[in-house]
Automatic annotation (TrEMBL):
Keyword Transit peptide carried by entry: no
Lineage, highest ranks first: Bacteria, Thermotogati, Deinococcota, Deinococci, Thermales
Pfam families associated with the record: Uma2
Annotated transmembrane regions: none
Recorded superkingdom: Bacteria
Span of domain Putative restriction endonuclease: 9-171
Protein name: Endonuclease, Uma2 family (Restriction endonuclease fold)
Entries under PANTHER family matching the protein: SLR1083 PROTEIN (PTHR35400:SF1)
CDD domains: DUF820-like (cd06260)
């Protein structure tokens, strides 16, 4: 019988991986698809919007480490998180205000694998920019492995994160 090897978070972080480009989801390693120019462009736009809107109010991390103990290491496209000292630890679900994923070829992976993990961990809000479908999917109010609220927003419309309802952010395209 062939069985996959399951990694702990500590084992995964010690692996000699040349470029991360991989994520650990509940002990299983997944290779990430390369980022296309459209994906990079939309992410750049979101980063500019988030940094301008939340400077001094929250941290903005781009494709950086985010852990969901005990066995999940992710690199979301954008993480909006509570300000704090992260010199000796990675942000976790208790620090997250919002996670944004940009999906071109990864929509099924993001929706079927990552969004349920974010919900189980209690991440309050997840946005998935669906480049092929031309929409932004908002997931709010985690309950178990799903979100009770799911909203579709079109490019050009305005949206505000739950953590900052006064913010009015235009969905880029």
């Amino acid at each position: 019988m062939v069985r996959p090897y399951r990694f702990s978070l500590e084992e995964f972080l010690r692996l000699p991986l040349p470029e991360r480009g991989v994520e650990l989801l509940e002990g299983e390693v997944y290779q990430m698809a390369p980022i296309g120019s459209r994906h990079a462009h939309i992410l750049d736009l979101w980063v500019q919007v988030f940094v301008k809107a939340f400077h001094g109010k929250a941290g903005v991390r781009v494709q950086g480490p985010f852990v969901l103990p005990p066995d999940t290491y992710l690199e979301p496209d954008l993480l909006l998180y509570r300000l704090g000292d992260f010199r000796h630890r990675y942000p976790g679900p208790e620090d997250a205000l919002l996670v944004l994923e940009v999906a071109e070829s990864s929509l099924d992976y993001d929706l079927s694998k990552k969004v349920p993990l974010y919900a189980k961990a209690g991440v309050p809000e997840v946005w998935v920019q669906d480049l092929l479908g031309g929409r932004l999917l908002l997931f709010r109010t985690p309950e178990g492995d799903h979100y009770r609220e799911q909203i579709w927003v079109k490019p050009g419309e305005k949206v505000a994160p739950l953590a900052f309802p006064e913010a009015s952010l235009e969905v880029p395209w």
